Amino acid sequence: MITVYVALGANLASPKAQLDQACEALKSLASDGQLSVSPYYQSAPMGDVPQPDYLNAVARFTTKLAPLALLDALQGIENEQGRVREVRWGARTLDLDLLLYGDWQLDIPRLKVPHYGMKTRSFVLIPLMDLAPDLILPCGTGLTSLITEELKCQVQQLGPDH
Questions:
Q1: CA–CA separation, 66 vs 63, rounded Å?
Q2: Quick one: pLDDT band at residue 94, thresholds 50, 70, 90?
């Protein structure tokens, strides 16, 4: 079993319901059916495609799935929830990104782990810190060293009931 962290994002078709449904689906990938999920955060979209703000979170669980099998399962969940890949950084019903797969470092055509953009994205780092404040990334960087006041201002935590 290996501990993984998955980023969740949605900004179409009732984003909160999309994240809630995705969390239920992720439990089926967890080796023990257990899942830890950060609070939900609201953030502005990346890029210059006009679209609504996102809801984001990070989930942690253990799995027996190999990296590519996990990626396939994550993409299957996205597809089941209506994900359409038409525009890069465009609006979406659900986006699931594999951030960390234990302490593995992978760079293959379909998958890069740790996720290539995670060190600079507030909507990933802040919820990740909620789950694992003492986390050391595979490169040796401590998670807390990446958190700046500017990043904290880029997201807004939703209430405890999301």
A1: 8
A2: very high
pLDDT above 80 (res 137): yes
Tell me if 135 is assigned to some domain: yes
Q: Does 31 score more than 60 pLDDT?
A: yes
Active site residue 85: no
pLDDT for the residue numbered 55: 95
Residue 162 domain-assigned (yes or no): no
Domain harbouring 11, CATH code: 3.30.70.560
**Number of domains the chain contains:** 1
> Among 32, 48, 60, 97, which one carries the catalytic annotation?
97
**Dist CA 138 CA 54 (whole Å):** 28
Active site residue 97: yes
23 falls within a domain: yes
61 to 6, 9, 102, 109, 156: CA distances (angstroms): 9, 17, 10, 24, 24
Task: Indicate if the pLDDT at residue 140 is higher than 60.
Answer: yes
Residue bearing tokens 């059916």: 33
In the residue annotation, 83 being an active-site residue is answered as: yes
Please say if the pLDDT value at position 69 is more than 90.
Answer: yes
The answer to whether residue 25 sits within a structural domain is: yes
* Beta carbons within 8 Å of 141's beta carbon, 6+ residues apart: 119
